[in-house]
Recover the amino acids of this structure.
């Protein structure tokens, strides 16, 4: 199993991701975390991820999870599995973690992706919401992401469990603790949201790891490291 879980895109250096992937090739871009946004904003979000991936030598193609939800509401999981199996890497961008989780459930991606990862047929690279959704729980993330957007966007109640691919929660966008005044460089509202998420996880006794926007968690087989 190979995972690259970051707070923001490639972190400080794309080298760990490239080392995990090997030779860059086709990458499936999943932007479901932005499905609640206006169409123009969502389109811009996809472009903003495609460009840096292209510069690294990848060939990005968007995989819109909404295309794999049947008219009867049932997931077209087999079709999605065939599509995802053709990529060497999945790139799952940030946005609303609860919306991403719901769209994964509606499309069957929450079953297909872990199965593909167990077979080590691709690399999963996700940042912010794309990283958080791989954890056991979304507890505390309502400090920054609005669960109410799920009903309006997906027509279902929000799910509070993640995919459980890693065994700890992730708190992205954490100020660098070693730099004096670092928290002041983060917008006050964002810094307060991070503090509330950390507090909620601590009170619930949930293991978690914080990530600054320069950091990422790399899982390669049985080894997990912070880079």
């Amino acid at each position: 199993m190979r995972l690259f879980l970051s707070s923001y895109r490639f972190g400080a250096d794309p080298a760990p991701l490239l080392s995990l992937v090997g030779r860059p090739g086709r990458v499936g871009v999943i932007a479901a975390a932005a499905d609640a946004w206006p169409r123009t904003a969502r389109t811009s979000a996809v472009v903003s991820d495609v460009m840096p991936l292209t510069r690294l030598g990848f060939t990005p193609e968007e995989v819109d999870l909404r295309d794999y939800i049947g008219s009867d509401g049932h997931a077209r999981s087999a079709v999605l599995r065939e599509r995802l199996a053709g990529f060497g890497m999945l790139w799952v961008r940030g946005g609303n973690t609860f919306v991403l989780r719901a769209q994964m459930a509606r499309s069957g991606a929450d079953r297909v992706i872990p199965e593909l990862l167990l077979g080590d047929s691709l690399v999963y690279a996700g940042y912010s919401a794309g990283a958080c959704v791989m954890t056991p729980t979304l507890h505390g993330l309502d400090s920054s992401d609005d669960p109410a957007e799920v009903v309006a966007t997906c027509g279902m109640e929000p799910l509070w469990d993640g995919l459980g691919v890693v065994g700890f929660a992730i708190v992205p966008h954490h100020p660098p603790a070693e730099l004096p005044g670092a928290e002041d460089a983060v917008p006050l509202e964002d810094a307060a949201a991070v503090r509330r998420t950390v507090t909620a996880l601590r009170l619930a006794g949930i293991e978690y790891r914080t990530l600054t926007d320069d950091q990422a968690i790399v899982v390669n087989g049985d080894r997990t490291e912070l880079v």
Observations:
- The chain is about 35% helix and 15% strand.
- The CA atoms of residues 70 and 153 lie 16 Å apart.
- The chain has a mean pLDDT of 93.
- Helices lie at 15-21, 39-55, 77-84, 97-107, 109-118, 129-132, 149-154, 188-204.
